[in-house]
Design a protein that fits this description.
The protein contains two helices and eleven strands; from the N terminus they run αβββββββββαββ. It is mainly beta. The chain has a five-stranded antiparallel β-sheet with strand order 9-8-7-10-11, with helices on one face. It has a four-stranded antiparallel β-sheet with strand order 2-3-4-5, with no helix packed on it.
């Protein structure tokens, strides 16, 4: 017997990397991929045969997880692409102070740090629901060293 450690954890679970490589031909709709340095959720994945040599290519269409901006990209099927580690966490809103949200994890009572109040309609909806005395839950998305509130629901 050998003393070789055969623990094959993906880099995403090791906590050291924001991305991990995946073969482009294995990507599927609603998955995530890095496009031009931005974490995107895939809305369309199509495979086409193009070129004189018949190289199979993957056409990707995605939406930036933070801005909602549409992006497109194309890769050969056999090449690796970077897939970001995207984490969605739900918190209970405890307060709003100078444009920062005070968040609490409901199950543990721990704090979620001070995330910025989003701009636009989402931010106004969060403020008005909180001011009306409703229990507001916000979804914080983390990817590529960024974090932002990407959704909310009020009860």
């Amino acid at each position: 017997m050998s003393d070789v450690d055969l623990d094959f954890e993906p880099p995403a679970q090791a906590g050291g990397s924001d991305t991990f490589p995946v073969r482009a031909g294995t990507l599927r709709r609603n998955g995530h991929v890095l496009m031009d340095g931005f974490a995107c959720r895939l809305t369309d994945v199509s495979i086409s045969k193009s070129g004189q040599r018949g190289q199979t290519e993957v056409n990707l269409t995605g939406i930036d997880v933070f801005t909602g901006e549409r992006r497109e990209d194309m890769h050969p099927c056999a090449h690796d692409v970077e897939v970001p580690v995207v984490v969605h966490t739900e918190y209970v809103l405890a307060g709003i102070d100078e444009g920062r949200l005070s968040l609490v994890v409901e199950s543990t009572g721990g704090t979620g740090g001070g995330v910025a109040l989003p701009e636009g309609v989402l931010g106004r909806d969060i403020e008005s629901d909180f001011a009306a005395g409703r229990c507001v839950r916000v979804t914080v998305t983390r990817a590529m060293g960024r974090e932002a509130v990407t959704g909310h629901r009020a009860q």
